From TrEMBL, chain A:
Keywords assigned: Phosphoprotein
Record-linked PANTHER family: RESPONSE REGULATOR RCP1-RELATED, TWO-COMPONENT SYSTEM REGULATORY PROTEIN
Keyword match Ligase: no
Highest taxon listed in the record's lineage: Bacteria
Lineage: Bacteria, Pseudomonadati, Acidobacteriota, Terriglobia, Terriglobales
Organism: Terriglobus aquaticus
Protein name per its UniProtKB record: Response regulator
Annotated ranges, domain Response regulatory: 7-128
UniProtKB/TrEMBL annotation, chain B:
PANTHER family assigned to the protein according to its UniProt record, in alphabetical order: BACTERIOPHYTOCHROME (PTHR42878:SF15), TWO-COMPONENT HISTIDINE KINASE (PTHR42878)
Keywords: Coiled coil, Kinase, Membrane, Phosphoprotein, Transferase, Transmembrane, Transmembrane helix
Species name: Terriglobus aquaticus
Protein name in the entry: histidine kinase
PROSITE patterns, per database record: HIS_KIN
Segments forming a coiled coil: 217-258
Stored InterPro entries: BphY/WalK/GraS-like, CHASE3, HATPase_C_sf, HATPase_dom, His_kinase_dom, HisK_dim/P_dom, HisK_dim/P_sf, Sig_transdc_His_kin-like_C
Length: 141, 474
């Protein structure tokens, strides 16, 4: 239970990226449990389904099968139980409209995945440190 | 008729009427002069008749008195008184007739006097006959006949002579007046005739002109109709054109949307596998360094450097497509501050290179700040890149207020002007990758920024002598 409290939900349809992200987290000595959702529907089910998880932070890709990232974000912010969850968009796109829409839907952070993996690993490390260590989450109801 | 020619008829008509009236007046005046002259002529004859009458009355009285003396017939006496009575009113009448002529007045006085003397004598003779008989009366007559007393006849003749003199004058007058009247009537008629001909001609001309204007009007109407038709055609063409523009715009919009989707997809999907390649090659490098030899490690480095280049290309392409799509919002831009901030970034990015920036103070422009920054980043970045092989890069950013153009100059490798036309096209490069790395998109992006501002861009260079880029912002 305590582990689940400090977990990360990674919403990522590309297994390669999933492996690389987890590697980068581990390399940064972030050992928190990482839950994986392969598409938007799965992510919504995990968060709002019969057995909801309560991750510390959600790393959300924008381009996803079934429900896209923005739709997942909208559902998270619509529901009372998930409204206050920190959500970080982690995407390849740096299209301005995506940034604008994400923030208007209430995202907490928007990170563009750099192509250079060293840069990406560094970004992931900082991300983990910030949201899992530094950031104070809202108290549980 | 709405034409100004009509107004010329008015004064002409007035002039014609005046001329006709003047002619008529002149003719009437000469006829009146003629009748006046004729009146005087008949008057003269009347006067002559009057004198004749006076003379006749006196002679009648004379002969009646003589007859009475000779015969004693009282009938003769009656006719004497009859004649005698007539003399005074006749002279009176003569006076009236000749009141205008002083000479005749004198004559009348003399005639009256002589007649009165004569009648007085005849009265005496008649009285003598009644009292003393024929002898005494006859002696009175005889005495008188021998006396030097003036007679009625000569004075009457002188009077008639006077009237005859007047008669000749008046006959001359009549003749002249007749001539003048004839002439004036003839002249007036002639003038009227001329006037009629003249007015007629004007009317004919007027009609011709009206017909001409009518023809011209009809032609104008036809031309007008033609123009109307053309306007209608143009309007139709315009509508078609608008329709076509609308459909083209729609096509263009849909193309734009496709392009947007494409670039979005490029931005997302093209980067993802690249990052995978880069990530796993890095993992390979880090985790299995000992498992491969130096050649293997070199290959891994080459894979990663290829990935980096590909990433740079994708970024440059996205920037180019974004500049084409972005809405242009112009405002006042502090170009000096912008160039200085770009210069700072470049110095940070190239710590190994000695760069001296020379940026004009106080440069301003009305432009889209984001797009202008992209242009300066590319131009100044190029300057840094192509001057990386000289000991100190000198990069000058300046503004020429006369030509209203900005200039970015460097002391780098330069290029051959022979290929300058290729400079601003995407993917066209003047340097090989072994000399200077690049996407071949930077200058195309700059050109697009400048063109979106309706400005112009050009370059001047020669190999080994640096390059100068000039641009205006419309």
């Amino acid at each position: 239970m305590a582990e689940q409290q400090r977990s990360i939900l990674l919403v990522e349809d590309d297994p390669d990226h999933e492996a690389l992200t987890i590697r980068a987290l581990r390399k940064s000595n972030i050992v928190n449990d990482v839950a994986i959702a392969r598409d938007g529907e799965e992510a919504v089910n995990m968060l709002l389904g019969p057995n909801p998880i309560k991750p510390q932070v959600i790393l959300l890709d924008l381009k996803l099968p079934k429900l896209d990232g923005l739709e997942v974000l909208r559902r998270i912010r619509e529901s009372d139980t998930t409204r206050t969850l920190p959500v970080v968009i982690l995407t390849s796109s740096d299209e301005e409209r995506d940034v604008v829409r994400s923030y208007s839907l209430g995202v907490n952070s928007y990170i563009r995945k750099p192509v250079n993996f060293s840069d990406f690993a560094e970004a992931t490390r900082q991300l983990g440190m910030y949201w899992l260590v530094l950031n104070e989450c809202p108290p549980k109801p | 008729m709405p034409f100004s020619k009509g107004s010329r008829i008015g004064p002409l008509l007035v002039a014609a009427i005046v001329i006709v009236l003047l002619n008529t007046w002149f003719a009437v005046a000469s006829v009146r002069t003629l009748s006046q002259s004729e009146y005087w002529l008949s008057h003269t004859w009347q006067v002559i008749g009057q004198v004749e009458g006076i003379v006749a009355s006196v002679r009648d009285a004379d002969s009646s008195a003589s007859g009475f003396v000779l015969t004693g017939d009282t009938n003769r006496l009656t006719s004497y008184y009859l004649a005698r009575q007539q003399v005074t009113p006749q002279i009176q009448r003569f006076r009236e007739l000749t009141s205008d002529n002083p000479r005749q007045r004198d004559n009348a006085d003399r005639l009256e006097h002589i007649a009165a003397e004569r009648l007085a004598l005849l009265d005496q003779v008649i009285a003598a006959k009644k009292i003393g008989g024929t002898e005494a009366a006859a002696s009175l007559l005889t005495e008188d006949a021998s006396s030097a007393r003036p007679r009625v006849r000569p004075i009457a003749e002188s009077m008639q002579d006077e009237e005859r003199r007047l008669l000749t004058i008046r006959e001359e007058d009549v003749k002249r007046s007749t001539l003048v009247a004839l002439l004036s009537v003839a002249v007036a008629s002639g003038l009227d005739l001329l006037l009629i001909v003249f007015v007629g001609r004007i009317l004919v001309r007027e009609r011709e002109m009206r017909m001409q204007t009518q023809t011209a009007n009809r032609e104008l109407e036809m031309a007008h109709a033609e123009v109307e038709k053309n306007v209608e055609t143009i309007r139709q063409l315009n509508t078609e054109l608008e329709e076509r523009v609308r459909s083209r715009t729609m096509e263009l919009e849909s193309t734009n949307r496709e392009l947007e989707a494409f670039s979005y997809s490029v931005s997302h999907d093209l980067r993802a596998p690249l990052r995978t390649i880069d990530g796993f090659s890095l993992a390979l490098q880090e985790d299995y360094e000992e498992a491969v030899d130096e050649t293997g490690r070199d290959y891994i480095r080459r894979v990663r450097s290829g990935v980096q280049r590909m990433g740079g290309l994708i970024d440059a392409l996205l920037q180019l497509s974004r500049i084409t799509r972005a809405e242009l919002s112009r405002r006042e831009v502090d170009v000096t501050a912008l160039a200085e901030s770009v210069a700072e970034n470049l110095k940070e990015e190239h710590p190994e290179q000695q760069i001296h920036f020379d940026i004009d103070p106080g440069m301003h422009a009305n432009a889209d700040p984001d797009l202008l920054r992209v242009a300066f980043e590319n131009l100044m970045g190029n300057a840094v890149k192509f001057s990386s092989k000289v000991s100190v890069s000198v990069i000058r950013v300046s503004y020429d207020p006369e030509k209203k153009r900005f200039e970015v100059a460097d002391n780098g490798a330069g290029f051959d002007m022979q290929y300058s036309s290729k400079l601003f096209n995407a993917f066209n490069r003047l340097h090989g990758d072994k000399d200077f790395k690049g996407s071949g998109i930077g200058l195309a992006t700059v050109a697009r920024v400048i063109h979106r501002h309706h400005g112009t861009i050009s370059a001047e260079s020669s190999v080994g002598n640096g390059a100068r880029f000039f641009f205006t912002l419309g």
